[in-house]
Amino acid sequence: MLKVAVIGATGAVGQEFVIALNRHKWFELTQVAASERSAGKKYIDAIRDPNSGILRWHNREEVPEYVKNMVVSKVDDIKPENFDLIFTALESDDAKIVEPKFAKTTPVISTAAAFRYEQDVPILIPGINDNHAELLNLQRKNRGWKGFVAPLPNCTTTGMAITLKPILDRFGIEKVFMTSMQALSGAGRSPGVIALDIMDNVIPYIPKEEEKVQVETKKILGAMNNGSIAPAPLKVSCTCTRVPVLDGHTESVFVETEQTADAEEVKKEMLKFSKNVSIKDLPTAPKDYIVVHDDPTRPQPRIDRELNDGMTTVVGRLRKDTAFDNGIKYVLLSHNEKMGSAKGAVLLAELLKDRNIL
């Protein structure tokens, strides 16, 4: 068992880590850290509202027994050399300061954007760009670290990159246009104001989201070239919106392929990719990496987001697009708090352990 710590353990993403690591076959969560407000308290008390006494627990599952009485540490009190791996669930500004300190001695897997765009940092999605993991050893060498920082993609990028990979490999891609309908949980769990903003409403702008998706997709689907990643030469444009859905990002995707591709061929490629995906034997890997529905009313967040515990990307309305000479369009659903966040980070840790990088 590898000893791991979670930084930012009391927030929404940190809570997902606590769930994902419960009774894990390979990783043992031995320490949790959060803000000074929570430090020194038992975990169960740290997630309790100090005024009302109500638990600020955001998961449908109960708080796991193993973590309830674990005492929350200050971030500064964490001794990274005591761990085999550290998961961080921090805001980017904090991640820029904290993660390099930890990475000097210990691998860090991060949900923050702080290091995603640096040349020696891959943005890894297990099963999609596993070969980019070799860049982590170069990062260690470049920075003089024993560890590394391995960030996840933006949660909106994840589902789209997963579905584009089999299309790119078989047919090539010229252009991608995407419109997202993103869940509230992706904006954090702020009470009050966001509820007033979103009810009976669609918010057509999410700061920095579109830029993240456009850059990250090309980096993830790019090729390793002399110790760096050459971004994929496709063009990506998107519009990201917030909708009154609790969990699960829905995306409408239009793809111009290099070679002619009909909907049935694309479906076959997606399902073949799902069946043969490289990470299928890892503990957190879903039984189905991609599911393709023929029912034109699917996917739907309320029905489909928990498939395989939120680790499956669900595709539907796969059909020919008439605006492109070689065009395909579809709708996808990806669970932003499972595959797109903490549980996806645990899956990445499993991949790196399996590859002897951890």
TrEMBL record:
Residue ranges occupied by any Semialdehyde dehydrogenase NAD-binding domain in the UniProt entry: 3-136
GO biological process, any: methionine biosynthetic process
Q: State what protein this is by name.
A: aspartate-semialdehyde dehydrogenase
Q: In the UniProt entry, which residues are flagged as the active site?
A: 155 (acyl-thioester intermediate), 249 (proton acceptor)
Q: GO molecular function, one example? A: NAD binding
In the UniProt record, what gene is named as encoding this protein?
asd
The UniProt entry, under Gene3D superfamilies, shows: Dihydrodipicolinate Reductase, domain 2 (3.30.360.10), NAD(P)-binding Rossmann-like Domain (3.40.50.720)
UniProt family annotation = Belongs to the aspartate-semialdehyde dehydrogenase family.
**What is this enzyme's EC?**
1.2.1.11
For the keyword Iron, the answer is: no
Q: Which residues fall in a coiled-coil region? A: none
Q: Which UniProt keywords apply?
A: Amino-acid biosynthesis, Diaminopimelate biosynthesis, Lysine biosynthesis, Methionine biosynthesis, NADP, Oxidoreductase, Threonine biosynthesis
**Which InterPro entries does this UniProt record tie to the protein?**
ASADH-related (IPR051823), Asp-semialdehyde_DH_CS (IPR000319), Asp_semi-ald_DH_pep-lack (IPR005676), NAD(P)-bd_dom_sf (IPR036291), Semialdehyde_DH_NAD-bd (IPR000534), Semialdhyde_DH_dimer_dom (IPR012280)
Q: Which domain of life is it from?
A: Archaea
Residues spanning the membrane: none
In terms of SUPFAM superfamilies, this protein maps to: Glyceraldehyde-3-phosphate dehydrogenase-like, C-terminal domain, NAD(P)-binding Rossmann-fold domains
